[in-house]
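User: Predict the complex with iron/sulfur cluster.
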Amino acid sequence: MFEQAAEGHLGDGGEDFTERFEAAWATAVAEQERNALASETEAAWGDAQRWPSYADKHVRARKRARELARKVHSWANADISVERLLRAEGEILIGRPDLVVRAPAPYRIEDYKTAVTHDETGEPKASHRRQILLYAYLESIVTGRGRPELGVIVPLKGPDIRFSIDWDEVEDEVHLAHSLVDEFNAGIGQPLTLGRPSSSACTPCPHATTCPAFWDRVASFEGSALQAVEGEVLSSQIAQTGTITVGLQITDGTIQPGKALLHRFLLSRFPALRAVSVGRRIRAVGLRVLDDEARTIVPSGWTRVTVLS
Ligand code: SF4
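Assistant: Here is the predicted structure with iron/sulfur cluster placed in the model:
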């Protein structure tokens, strides 16, 4: 939406703005919804209207887009680029900043954020600042137009976060990014050394059922919000409602080994479970323990299932 506003497709922020915005929003949301419904992990979220804070984001995005459309329209002799891919020969880092404004001054990088922009201490997130510093570096080497002097993080809610770009800091971040790329390349083939499992990273990760790093450390998530099990199928029963209940001998995961029940998993959402039969091994991640005593486990919005053998 911000790209369309910056490129003038939503007009100048005047009377016809709302109509233009809503049409573009409906098209963008329909595409996101199609992608989500086609994904095993995201389909459970259902229609876009039911996504967390959908209505709030809709209103805030419209307000921000109108501001941007007005601002860009008001600039005479503006020199901007919108979502341009910054890629230089011989440089492994690439980036696509939301908006680069070379004129009117100051020369700046603006990045629009729909998610939380501050960390738990109330400070602007270091990752957002780092991202803009790397964009500044790429902008300077790709365009040869000089050095951006200002970074602007634009949240959906609240004031912009503005900071001067310190080029010593840019060099440090570029150096760090290059060394992380080298470390990554050296570690390919040894996934246990590369993976950094955490509840927040692994819960939505589509690779969690097969990731060696996650399963190497799965026991450390016991008692956390991230529940995962591996086990051998003891029984399976399909109900007329299109759900399957699987008796499992748990051998690994966040739940103590022993018998448990994977209860009422929708086959339309977990088609892999159609193939389960006694003796097969499965893994499931992103579970919810419904009843500790009865060891009854149900799916959550993040559940993924893989049949191993
Ligand atoms: S499951 Fe593996 S690949 Fe996915 S976030 Fe966790 S550690 Fe990284």
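The mean pLDDT is 89.
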